[in-house]
C-alpha cells in the first residue's frame, strides 16, 4: 500500500519481437507491451513519489548501461531507457517513442537482470522498499546461463522479486504449450525458469495469461479506518451500577468506491497570449499536444435592489451572514446563534433493545456497513463482546443501538448483527444504519394479493391477480433459475454464481482502463467494456438452457402484452376520463362545442376544444388561438413573470398536437415564435423565454422520434434550438 | 413526513451528472391550496362531552380543526419542503376577497383568499397562528355568508390561483374541507356547471382531494355532489384503495386527530423515481414497473448566505465564474472535463465519455435467484428502491409481479438483477427482496406464516419488491483482525435473559417511533428564530433515540450485575493464563538466543510493543528512536492514519497513547 516500491521493467526489443506469432495479428512486442504499458500507466495514475520505476531495453541497437561503461563484457545491446525514479506521463510519452523493435539480437537477458539489480541496489540502498524486476521477452535471443547461480544469489540477498513473463512460454498450469518451439527458445525458457526457481521470490509465467488477467479489475486496497474507539453500553454506566460497557473498535466493512471524477479544465496552450520571441525559438511547441490546466471557481454574491441597474447589485462576502430559509423568509444565524442552538451530543454507543431476525429485511438498510470488534488486549471486552455475539446468534436476534461517532455529531440508529466468525473469519458485530421516522415516506399502494373495488368489495380473482397456473409457473421458474449452486468446483461442491467478490463496478473499471489506455496512447480508441464487467448483465446462457421449459411455461401463463408506444401514457386513457360518478362531462360539453379559447382558462379550454373538434379546421383554429395566447403572455410579461405560464401552455399545445399527429402545425408555430422572440417584436428582449423555457424545457421542434409523421430529425431540432438566427 | 424537493430530484450524488428523465422537465414541485368551507355548521362547536367515547378536549369546531390542520401542514412543509407552495381559500364567506387588485365587485363572490398560493413566509405562519390560536380575525373572514357560494365559482377561483401562481408545477392539489355533502341541493344547473369547472381543473392537471367532515352521526354522501367533481388520480392503478376518508369525532379519536391523519397521509404527493422501467424476467418476458424512494435520509437544509445591509434580511444569490491559472475569466464554452492522471490531465471528448458511461439501456434484468440466507449479512452500501408494477407499458405486469412477489415470500428467496435506473445511470447489481406489507388491521400479530416461518412483516411499508443494491467487490474493505471465534460458554448462557427481556415494543424496530433528534431540534430552533419566539432549551430536547436506562436497570439490572461479576472473574482468568503463556514464550525465546540480544524494553521493534511499553517509551522520550517504518506500523495497528513526517508520526503516537493507555 503505502510501502515504497522500486520496479525495473526489462523489455526485449530484439528484431524477432517485431514478428507476429501463433496467429496473433500484433507483433510480440505490441503484445508484451500491453502488459507493460498497463503496469506503467497504473503507476503513473497512482501519482506516488515513492513508487519508482525503471525501464531497461534488451537487444537495443545501442548500448547504454553503467556496466558496459565500466568496461565489463557481455553487456552489449542493453540500454537503460528510464532511470529508476518516479514516472510521469511525459516520461511515458517519451518511452513510447523509444520502445520500438531493433535490428539486433545480441543482448543477454541475464546481463540485463544484472543491470536492473544494480540499478535497484544503487537507488534503494538499505531502505525499506518493495523491490522487483520484471522481464518480458520472447526468449529468441541467446542467453549465457554461466552466471545464473550468482545472479540468483544476489537477487535473494537484495530481496528482489524476479518476474519473468515470456511470449509463448509454455505453462502447463495455465494450459499453454507452443507446439513448434525452436530449440533455442526451449533452452532459453529453461534457463530463465531455473533462474526464477532459484529466487526466494520469483514468478515465471506466459504472456497470454498476463494479458488476460489485465482485464480482471484491480481493486484499490484501502487501509482500515477506525471510526469509533470507545465503549458499547447497555444501560447507563454513569447512573446505574448494573450497566454493561465493553470497549469496542468500529471499522468500515463496506464503503462505496467512487468512479474517478472529471475535473473542469481549460486547454491553456491555445488561449494564452502568444509566447515571447525567445520562447518560440528554443521551445518546439507541439501544436497537437494540448495542455490542460485546472480551473478555479470564484463566487460573487448579489442581492435584489430595485434602484440598481438590472435590479441587482453586488455585495461583499464580508457583509454576509449565514442563515437558513424559512419559507420565503430568510433567517440569519450569527456565530453565537449557531453555538447556542447546536444539537449537543456526546460520543456514545448504546443499545436501545433487541429485535428478532424475522422483524428485519435487507431493504431497511440505509447505508454502508460497519464492523465492531473488542479493543485489543482487553480481556473483559473480548469475552463480553463474544458473549453478546453468541447470545444474539443463538437467540436469532439483532441489537438496535444509538451511535454518536464523536462529540457533537448527529446520532444514528444502527442495527447490530452477530457474526460468530461465519462470514469473515473472525468474530464481530456488523452494523447497518436504520431509518428515522422522517426518512420513511408514507405512500399508499394497493395490495398485491387482492383487489379492492370502489364499493369496498374484496376480489381474489381479477385480471390484476395471478391465476393458479401463473402462480405455479412462477414458482417453477424461480426454482429453476436458482443460481446458488449452479456451478460445481473441482471437488464437486456447489459454487454460488455471482458472489460479491466477483462483482466489479463496471463504471469504475471501464473508466480507469480507458484513462490508462489513453495516457499511453492519445489516439487510442474507446474499447468496448471488458467481458468480465458485463458478465452479470445477463443471465448465464447455461441457466437459460436449463430452465427453458419453465421459462416457456411462464411466458404462456403470464400472457403479457406490450402496449403500443402511441397508446401509452395519459393520452391513451384520455377518452375514458370520467369523475367517480361516471358522469359524461364530454357529452355535457359537446352540447355546445367550444369555438374560442380564453387566456384565463386556456389549457382546459384548449383541450376541450380539441376533444370535441370534428374537423382539422377546428384544430387549426384552436392551435392558432393558443399560439396567440402564448405570444400575448410573453409580450405582457413583466420581466420573466409570465414565462412559466406561457411555457406550460406551449407544453400542452405540443403534447396535444403530437397526440393528434399534427406535429407540423406545432413546428410551424414554434419556428415563428422563435423568430418573434429573437427579433424583439414581443416587447423587448425575450431571449430568456426561448433558452430557459423553450429550449431547456424541451419544447422545441417535434422530432421524428416523438411523432412518426414529423419530418424533423433530432439533429435538426437541436440545431434549431440552439442557433441564434 | 418531511422531504426536501431538491433531494428528490437528484436522488444520488453519483447520478448528479445524469440527464434528467422526461418526467423531470416539469418542475417537480408541489402546490397545495386549502379550500375551507365557512358555513354556520362548520363554525359550530360540538356540544360538551356527553358519552365516554369522546375524548376530553374534543371541543374543536370543524373550522377550528381544519385551520389547525392547515397550520400544522404549513409548519411542516415550510421547513421540510421549503420550495413548495401553499395557499388558503375560504368559501361561503360573507366577505369576498381575491388578490390585492380590487376587481370590480370581485369575480368570486363569497370566496375569501386568506393567503395566496406561494412559498409561505414567516408572516403567513404568524397570521395563521394568530387566527388559529388567538382567534384573531381582524378582517372578519370567518363570517359565514347568508347565501351560499357557487361551487363552480369556487373551483374556477382555485383554477385561476393555480394557473397564475403555479403554472408549471408537477403536482397541484386542491384540498377541499367541508361538512356539506350537497351544496347545491336539487339545483341541476349549478351542479353541472360545477362538474364542468371540475373537469377544467382536471384538464389543467389539478387533483382535487376531498376531506369530508361528518357531523355527529350523519354520513357524508359523496354521490349527492362530489362524485361528479372528483377524479381518480391518473397515476394510480386500477384496484387502488385510494378512497376518500371521512373525518369525524368518536372512537376515541377527536375530529382534529382524525382530520390530521387524513391530511397527513396526503402530505407529500406520490412521486416516482423512475417510471415504466422494463423488468426483464427472462428473454421474451418483460413487465413494466415504477420505482419509488420510500426510504430516504432526510437532512437539514443547507445554510445560505444572508445580506443584512438592507432593511430586511435578504438572501444573497451566488454566482460563480471560472478562472484559469492566469486568473482570466473562462467562458463556459471553453471548459472541458478531464481526468487527473499522475499530475497530468487525460481528456475525452463528450461523446467518448458518453460511450464510456453507457452500459446499455435502462433496465432491470434478472439473472437468477438465491435463498435470502445467501446474502451476506454485511451486504449493504446504500438505501433501496421500492418497485411496483404498472400496466402502462405491458398489460399483465401486475399479475406477473404479484406471482413473483408471492413466490419470493413463500420460499424466502431473492432475485439477483442487473439494474440501470435511468439512461446513462451507473449500473448496479441488486437483490430483489419482497416486503409483505402492513397486512389487514385484524392480523396485527401475524409474525409467522402458515408454515411457521417468520413473516418479515414490516407494517410501516407497503407490499411490493425492493431493489437492494449489493456492494461491488470494490466497496468491500479488507479488515484484517484476529478475533478467533469463542465457543459459547457460561457467559453466553447468562446473557440470554438479558437479551430476551429487552425486546423493543412489538418485537421490531419501527422507525416511526424514532424521529431524528437532531433534525427535529434544527426545525424547532429555526421556527423559533423565524417567528421571533423564545428559543427552546437544550434540556427540552425530545430524543426518543436515547435508551430507556431506568427501564433497562429495572428489567434486567439483576441479571446484568450477576453477569458482570462473572465477566470480571473470567477476564482475570484469561489474563493470568495469557501472562503465563507469554512468560513461557519469552523463556523459550531466551533459551534460543543469547541473553544479551534481548531487546531493551524501550526499543523493541514495531507493533509488538505493548501499550504499556509504549507508555514507558513515551515517558522516557524514546519514541523518536523508532524508525519511520516502525512508527507507521504501530500507528496502522492502532488504526491511526500514518501519514506525515517523522515528527508528526511521533506526535500522533503520543496523542494516541495519552488517550488510550
TrEMBL record, chain A:
Matching CDD domains: KU80
UniProt xrefs under Pfam families: Ku, Ku_N, Ku_PK_bind
Gene3D superfamilies reported for this sequence: 1.10.1600.10, 2.40.290.10, Ku, C-terminal domain (1.25.40.240), von Willebrand factor, type A domain (3.40.50.410)
Keywords linked to the UniProt accession: ATP-binding, Chromosome, DNA damage, DNA recombination, DNA repair, DNA-binding, Helicase, Hydrolase, Nucleotide-binding, Nucleus, Telomere
Region (Disordered): 262-286
Annotated InterPro entries: DNA_bd_Ku70/Ku80 (IPR006164), Ku80 (IPR024193), Ku_C_sf (IPR036494), Ku_N (IPR005161), Ku_PK_bind (IPR014893), SPOC-like_C_dom_sf (IPR016194), vWFA_dom_sf (IPR036465)
Catalytic reactions on record: ATP + H2O = ADP + phosphate + H(+)
Domain of life (superkingdom): Eukaryota
Uppermost EC category: hydrolase
Localization terms from the record: Chromosome, Telomere; Nucleus
Documented EC number(s): 3.6.4.12
Domain Ku: 312-451
Protein family according to the UniProt entry: Belongs to the ku80 family.
Function: Single-stranded DNA-dependent ATP-dependent helicase. Involved in non-homologous end joining (NHEJ) DNA double strand break repair. DNA-binding is sequence-independent but has a high affinity to nicks in double-stranded DNA and to the ends of duplex DNA. Binds to naturally occurring chromosomal ends, and therefore provides chromosomal end protection. Required also for telomere recombination to repair telomeric ends in the absence of telomerase. KU70, of the KU70/KU80 heterodimer, binds to the stem loop of TLC1, the RNA component of telomerase. Involved in telomere maintenance.
UniProt name for this protein: ATP-dependent DNA helicase II subunit 2
Native source species: Remersonia thermophila
Automatic annotation (TrEMBL), chain B:
Residue span of region Disordered: 1-59, 434-454, 582-607
Keyword DNA damage: yes
Enzyme Commission no: 3.6.4.12
Localization per Swiss-Prot or TrEMBL: Chromosome, Telomere; Nucleus
Keywords, comma-separated and alphabetical: ATP-binding, Chromosome, DNA damage, DNA recombination, DNA repair, DNA-binding, Helicase, Hydrolase, Nucleotide-binding, Nucleus, Telomere
Catalyzed reactions per annotation: ATP + H2O = ADP + phosphate + H(+)
Compositionally biased intervals (Acidic residues): 13-22, 440-449
Biased composition (Basic and acidic residues): 1-12
Signal peptide interval: none
Keyword Nucleotide-binding attached: yes
Family matches, as Pfam families: Ku, Ku_C, Ku_N, SAP
Boundaries of every SAP domain copy: 623-657
SMART domains: Ku78, SAP
Family: Belongs to the ku70 family.
Purpose: Single-stranded DNA-dependent ATP-dependent helicase. Involved in non-homologous end joining (NHEJ) DNA double strand break repair. DNA-binding is sequence-independent but has a high affinity to nicks in double-stranded DNA and to the ends of duplex DNA. Binds to naturally occurring chromosomal ends, and therefore provides chromosomal end protection. Required also for telomere recombination to repair telomeric ends in the absence of telomerase. KU70, of the KU70/KU80 heterodimer, binds to the stem loop of TLC1, the RNA component of telomerase. Involved in telomere maintenance.
PANTHER family with a match to the protein in the record: KU AUTOANTIGEN DNA HELICASE, X-RAY REPAIR CROSS-COMPLEMENTING PROTEIN 6
Protein name (database record): ATP-dependent DNA helicase II subunit 1
Amino acid at each position: 500500500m503505502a510501502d515504497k516500491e522500486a520496479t525495473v521493467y526489462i523489455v526485449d526489443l530484439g528484431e524477432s519481437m517485431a514478428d507476429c506469432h501463433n496467429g496473433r495479428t500484433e507483433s510480440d512486442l505490441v503484445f508484451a507491451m500491453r502488459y507493460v504499458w498497463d503496469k506503467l500507466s497504473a503507476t503513473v495514475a497512482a501519482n506516488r513519489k515513492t513508487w519508482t520505476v525503471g525501464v531497461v531495453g534488451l537487444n537495443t541497437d545501442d548500448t547504454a548501461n553503467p556496466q558496459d561503461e565500466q568496461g565489463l563484457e557481455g553487456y552489449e545491446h542493453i540500454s537503460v531507457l528510464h532511470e529508476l525514479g518516479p514516472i510521469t506521463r511525459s516520461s511515458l510519452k517519451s518511452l513510447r517513442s523509444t520502445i520500438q523493435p531493433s535490428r539486433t539480437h545480441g543482448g543477454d537477458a541475464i546481463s540485463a537482470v544484472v543491470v536492473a539489480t544494480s540499478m535497484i541496489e544503487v537507488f534503494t540502498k538499505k531502505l525499506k522498499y518493495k523491490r522487483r524486476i520484471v522481464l518480458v521477452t520472447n526468449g529468441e535471443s541467446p542467453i549465457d546461463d554461466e552466471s545464473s547461480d550468482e545472479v540468483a544469489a544476489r537477487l535473494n540477498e537484495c530481496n528482489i522479486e524476479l518476474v519473468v513473463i515470456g511470449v509463448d512460454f509454455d505453462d502447463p498450469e495455465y494450459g499453454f504449450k507452443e507446439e513448434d518451439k525452436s530449440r533455442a527458445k526451449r533452452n532459453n525458457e529453461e534457463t530463465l525458469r531455473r533462474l526464477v526457481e532459484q529466487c526466494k521470490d520469483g514468478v515465471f509465467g506466459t504472456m497470454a495469461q498476463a494479458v488476460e488477467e489485465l482485464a480482471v479489475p484491480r481493486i484499490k486496497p484501502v487501509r482500515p479506518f477506525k471510526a469509533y474507539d470507545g465503549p458499547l453500553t447497555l444501560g447507563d454506566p454513569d447512573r446505574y451500577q448494573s450497566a454493561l460497557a465493553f470497549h469496542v473498535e468500529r471499522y468500515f466493512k463496506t464503503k462505496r468506491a467512487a468512479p474517478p471524477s472529471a475535473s473542469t479544465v481549460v486547454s491553456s496552450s491555445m488561449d494564452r497570449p502568444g509566447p515571447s520571441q525567445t520562447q518560440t525559438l528554443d521551445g518546439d511547441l507541439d501544436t497537437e499536444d494540448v495542455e490542460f490546466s485546472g480551473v478555479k471557481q470564484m463566487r460573487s454574491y448579489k442581492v435584489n435592489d430595485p434602484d440598481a441597474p438590472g435590479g441587482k447589485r453586488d455585495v461583499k462576502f464580508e457583509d454576509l451572514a449565514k442563515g437558513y430559509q424559512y419559507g420565503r423568509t430568510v433567517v440569519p444565524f450569527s456565530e453565537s446563534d449557531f453555538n447556542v442552538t447546536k444539537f449537543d451530543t456526546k460520543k456514545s454507543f448504546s443499545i436501545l433493545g433487541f429485535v428478532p431476525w424475522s422483524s428485519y429485511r435487507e431493504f431497511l438498510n440505509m447505508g454502508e456497513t460497519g464492523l465492531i470488534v473488542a479493543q485489543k488486549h482487553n480481556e473483559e471486552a473480548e469475552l463480553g463482546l463474544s458473549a453478546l455475539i453468541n447470545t444474539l446468534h443463538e437467540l436469532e436476534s439483532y441489537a438496535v443501538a444509538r451511535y454518536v461517532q464523536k462529540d457533537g455529531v448527529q446520532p444514528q440508529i444502527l442495527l447490530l448483527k452477530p457474526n460468530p466468525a461465519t462470514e469473515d473469519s473472525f468474530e464481530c458485530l456488523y452494523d447497518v444504519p436504520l431509518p428515522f421516522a422522517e426518512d420513511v415516506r408514507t405512500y399508499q399502494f394497493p395490495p398485491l394479493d387482492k383487489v379492492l373495488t370502489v364499493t369496498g368489495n374484496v376480489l381474489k380473482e381479477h385480471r390484476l391477480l395471478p391465476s393458479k397456473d401463473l402462480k405455479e409457473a412462477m414458482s417453477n421458474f424461480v426454482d429453476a433459475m436458482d443460481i446458488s449452486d449452479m456451478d460445481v468446483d473441482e471437488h464437486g461442491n456447489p459454487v454460488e454464481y455471482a458472489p460479491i467478490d466477483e462483482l466489479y463496478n463496471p463504471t469504475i473499471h471501464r473508466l480507469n482502463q480507458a484513462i490508462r489506455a489513453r495516457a499511453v496512447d492519445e489516439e487510442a480508441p474507446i474499447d468496448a467494456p471488458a467481458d468480465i464487467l458485463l458478465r452479470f448483465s445477463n443471465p448465464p446462457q447455461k441457466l437459460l438452457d436449463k430452465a427453458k421449459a419453465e421459462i416457456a411455461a411462464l411466458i404462456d401463463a403470464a400472457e403479457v402484452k406490450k402496449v403500443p408506444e402511441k397508446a401509452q401514457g395519459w393520452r391513451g386513457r384520455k377518452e375514458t376520463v370520467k369523475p367517480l360518478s361516471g358522469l359524461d362531462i364530454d357529452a355535457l360539453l359537446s352540447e355546445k362545442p367550444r369555438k374560442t379559447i380564453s387566456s384565463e382558462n386556456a389549457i382546459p379550454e384548449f383541450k376541450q376544444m380539441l376533444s370535441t373538434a370534428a374537423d382539422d379546421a377546428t384544430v387549426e383554429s384552436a392551435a392558432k388561438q393558443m399560439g396567440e395566447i402564448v405570444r400575448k403572455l410573453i409580450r405582457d410579461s413583466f420581466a420573466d413573470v409570465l414565462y412559466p405560464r406561457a411555457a406550460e401552455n406551449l407544453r400542452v399545445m405540443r403534447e396535444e398536437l403530437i397526440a393528434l399527429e399534427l406535429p407540423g402545425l406545432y413546428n410551424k408555430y414554434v419556428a415563428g415564435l422563435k423568430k418573434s422572440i429573437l427579433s424583439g417584436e414581443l416587447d423587448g428582449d425575450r431571449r430568456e423565454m426561448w433558452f430557459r423555457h423553450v429550449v431547456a424545457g424541451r419544447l422545441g421542434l417535434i422530432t421524428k422520434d416523438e411523432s412518426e409523421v414529423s419530418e424533423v430529425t433530432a439533429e435538426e431540432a437541436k440545431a434549431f434550438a440552439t442557433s441564434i438566427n | 413526513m418531511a422531504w426536501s424537493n431538491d433531494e428528490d430530484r437528484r436522488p444520488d450524488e453519483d447520478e448528479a451528472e445524469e440527464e434528467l428523465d422526461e418526467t423531470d422537465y416539469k418542475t417537480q414541485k408541489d402546490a397545495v391550496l386549502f379550500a375551507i368551507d365557512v358555513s354556520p355548521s362548520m363554525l359550530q362547536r360540538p356540544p360538551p362531552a356527553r358519552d365516554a367515547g369522546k375524548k376530553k378536549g374534543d371541543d374543536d369546531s370543524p373550522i377550528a380543526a381544519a385551520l389547525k390542520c392547515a397550520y400544522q401542514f404549513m409548519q411542516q412543509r415550510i421547513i421540510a419542503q421549503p420550495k413548495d407552495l401553499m395557499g388558503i381559500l375560504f368559501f361561503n364567506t360573507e366577505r369576498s376577497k381575491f388578490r390585492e387588485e380590487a376587481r370590480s365587485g370581485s369575480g368570486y363572490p363569497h370566496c375569501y383568499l386568506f393567503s395566496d398560493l406561494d412559498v409561505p413566509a414567516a408572516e403567513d405562519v404568524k397570521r395563521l397562528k394568530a387566527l388559529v390560536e388567538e382567534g384573531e380575525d381582524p378582517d372578519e373572514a370567518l363570517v359565514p355568508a347568508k347565501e351560499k357560494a357557487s361551487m363552480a365559482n369556487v373551483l374556477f377561483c382555485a383554477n385561476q390561483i393555480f394557473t397564475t401562481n403555479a403554472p408549471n408545477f408537477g403536482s397541484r392539489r386542491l384540498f377541499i374541507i367541508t361538512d356539506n355533502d350537497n351544496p347545491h341541493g336539487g339545483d341541476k344547473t349549478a351542479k353541472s356547471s360545477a362538474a364542468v369547472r371540475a373537469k377544467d381543473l382536471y384538464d389543467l392537471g389539478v387533483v382535487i382531494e376531498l376531506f369530508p367532515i361528518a357531523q355527529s352521526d350523519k354520513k357524508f354522501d359523496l354521490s349527492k355532489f362530489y362524485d361528479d367533481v372528483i377524479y381518480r388520480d391518473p397515476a394510480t392503478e386500477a384496484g387502488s384503495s385510494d378512497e376518500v376518508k371521512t373525518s369525524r369525532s368518536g372512537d376515541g379519536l377527536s375530529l382534529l386527530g382524525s382530520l390530521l391523519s387524513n391530511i397527513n397521509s396526503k402530505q407529500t404527493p406520490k412521486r416516482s423515481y423512475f417510471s415504466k422501467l422494463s423488468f426483464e424476467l427472462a428473454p421474451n418476458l418483460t413487465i413494466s414497473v415504477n420505482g419509488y424512494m420510500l426510504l430516504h435520509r432526510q437532512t437539514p437544509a443547507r445554510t445560505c448566505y444572508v445580506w443584512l445591509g438592507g432593511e430586511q434580511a435578504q438572501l444573497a444569490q451566488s454566482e460563480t465564474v471560472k478562472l484559469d491559472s492566469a486568473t482570466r475569466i473562462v467562458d463556459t464554452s471553453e471548459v472541458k472535463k478531464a481526468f487527473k492522471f499522475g499530475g497530468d490531465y487525460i481528456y475525452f471528448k463528450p461523446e467518448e465519455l458518453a460511450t464510456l458511461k453507457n452500459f446499455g439501456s435502462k433496465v432491470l434484468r434478472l439473472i437468477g435467484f438465491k435463498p435470502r440466507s445467501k446474502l451476506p449479512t454485511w451486504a449493504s452500501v446504500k438505501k433501496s428502491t421500492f418497485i411496483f408494477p404498472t400496466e402502462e407499458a405491458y398489460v399483465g405486469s401486475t399479475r406477473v409481479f404479484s406471482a413473483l412477489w408471492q413466490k419470493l415470500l413463500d420460499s424466502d428467496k431473492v432475485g439477483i438483477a442487473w439494474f440501470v435506473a435511468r439512461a446513462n445511470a451507473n449500473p448496479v447489481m441488486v437483490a430483489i427482496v419482497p416486503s409483505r406489507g402492513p397486512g389487514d388491521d385484524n392480523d396485527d400479530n401475524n409474525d409467522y406464516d402458515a408454515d411457521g416461518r417468520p413473516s418479515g412483516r414490516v407494517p410501516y411499508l407497503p407490499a411490493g419488491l425492493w431493489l437492494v443494491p449489493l456492494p461491488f467487490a470494490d466497496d468491500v474493505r479488507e479488515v484484517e483482525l484476529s478475533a478467533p471465534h469463542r465457543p459459547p460458554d457460561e457467559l453466553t448462557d447468562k446473557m440470554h435473559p438479558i437479551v430476551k427481556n429487552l425486546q423493543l415494543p412489538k418485537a421490531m424496530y419501527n422507525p416511526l417511533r424514532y424521529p431524528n433528534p437532531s433534525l427535529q431540534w434544527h426545525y424547532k430552533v429555526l421556527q423559533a428564530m423565524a417567528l421571533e419566539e423564545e428559543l427552546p432549551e437544550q434540556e427540552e430536547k425530545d430524543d426518543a433515540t436515547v435508551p430507556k436506562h431506568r427501564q433497562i436497570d429495572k428489567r434486567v439490572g439483576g441479571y446484568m450485575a450477576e453477569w458482570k461479576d462473572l465477566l470480571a472473574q473470567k477476564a482475570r482468568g484469561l489474563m493470568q493464563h495469557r501472562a503465563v503463556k507469554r512468560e513461557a514464550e519469552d523463556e523459550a525465546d531466551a533459551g534460543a538466543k543469547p541473553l544479551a540480544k534481548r531487546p531493551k524494553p524501550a526499543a523493541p521493534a514495531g507493533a509488538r510493543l505493548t501499550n504499556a511499553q509504549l507508555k514507558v517509551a513515551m515517558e522516557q522520550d524514546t519514541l523518536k528512536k523508532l524508525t519511520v517504518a516502525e512508527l507507521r506500523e504501530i500507528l496502522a495497528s492502532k488504526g491511526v492514519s500514518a501519514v506525515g513526517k517523522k515528527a508528526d508520526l511521533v506526535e500522533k503516537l503520543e496523542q494516541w497513547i495519552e488517550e488510550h493507555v
